[in-house]
Every structure is written in C-alpha cells, then in structure tokens.
Amino acid sequence: MKETRALGATFGAEVLDFLISSSASTEEITAIKTLWAEHKLLLFRNQTLDESTLVSFSQVFGALEIHVRTEYLSPDHPEILYVSNIQKNGQKVGILADTEVGWHYDQIYLPRPAVGSLLMAHTLPPEGGNTEFADMTAAYEELPESVKTRLHSAHAVQSYEAFNRAYSVPTNKEQKKKSPDIEHPIVRTHPITGRKALYLCPGMTTEIVGWDPAESREMLDYLFEWSIQPRYVYSHAWQPGDALLWDNACTMHRRDPFDQNHERLMKRTTILPPQELAVPV
What we know:
The chain has 281 residues and is α+β, with helices and mostly antiparallel strands. Helix content is 23%, strand content 27%. The protein has 7 helices and 18 strands.
C-alpha cells in the first residue's frame, strides 16, 4: 500500500511518492483505488502530466464524461473540461472564471451522475482560489436519528440551471435540453463502498419533493449548515503540480475567488459510474 499523509479530520489523504502516468502497474492502480474508497479525496503533488496522460489515468477509474459545456472542453481531448479565467481572442477558454463558486456536487443534475473527478493545476494565481471539500458521509452519519428518519426515502430536485444562475454562464437551449431538472435521493448509498452520504448541495438542490415549501426550505438550510461544519471540511491551497481526485458520490466542494488580474487554468476529467450502478439509490 502507498504511504499517505492525512489531510482533513475525517477524510482526505496525500499519496506520497506516486507519479501519475499512463503506465502505472496493476498493483499501483489497485492500491490507489483502495485508498480512494477509504479516504474519498486523494492529493498527488509534483505532477507533470500532459493532457493525454490525464485522460488515460482517469480512465482506469471508469468511463469519462464529455461535459455539456462543450465550448470549454480541450480541443485535443474533449474528456477534459477547462476551469479558467483566461481569455483568447476575446473568448473565455474555461468555465467558472474567478469569482466564488458555491458548494456543489459535480453533475448531481444528471441521470447518471459522476462518481469522481480529477482536477489538475496547470496555471495558478499567487493566492486565492482555494478549494474546500465537505465529507458528506461523516455529515450524514452524525445527524440526529430523528433527522435521518425524516430523510428516509426523501428525494430532492437538482437544478444545473439554478447553479448557472448563481455562479456561472447560463446554458444555451441545447445544453438546457441535455440537463433538465432531476430528482435524486437526499441520502445516497455509495455504489462502491455501500456507505450512506447526504446527496444535496446549496448550489443545485432547490426543494424536497412533496414537502411543504416552508418545511423543505427549513430542512435544506439546516442540512446545508450542518454539512459544512469545520470538522467535515478540508480546505486545499493549491500548489503547482497538484492533482486532486475526489469521490463525487460522497463529497461536495466549493472554490474561493481570486484576483482576476492573475491567470488560473485547471484541467478536470469527470469519471462516470458503471452503467449498472448509474442511478443514485
């Protein structure tokens, strides 16, 4: 097993002395998968991988999503989404430029939501742009039993349009068609580990299905506040060469703003679950 260093109080680990490559051995990949399932968030420092290697390494964890925001994809590797404030010829090359990005789960709005994301730091500002992660498994497990009972079998509406209104560039008609509002369980059973986690986020979860609107708002606000208590949150200050692999079935994340006068470019792949485990339960 690879040597690690703990990151957060309840989750997260830095994997020491591991270089991401397209030729990692079966034993190394098995070890990384085991660590990922255990820690939910893995940090790899001092990486120099190119886009081809980023894609090939990501693919060992599952099929990769081609993001609906096609205008922000790598021209050479469409499996890679650019997160950036850089402009070329008057056009933004990436999504989510330089302002704050609120708490969210990647692609919680899709019928087959991602189970993982790998984000590689390419160009960084001198400060700002930190990314925070919340351990939604620990947050669920420590909820009062009375709240767990109320949430049993409850579903919530997830809206990509709501997220874009708050934090990003509005989707066009074709993108809206590909990402309509959808309902998912508020408590998700992890498709690999079987552990339960809260599956909702302030950025995209708009209401609890079938609940009185006031009761729905009250419960959602309570859960949002509960799940970002300091003991559940790890804040990552990016360094050149950092790559973060997070479990998107049981962690949500957000980003701090940074000075728009400095360029930032991050490259992200999005890992899909096996088809038989596609629908959150």
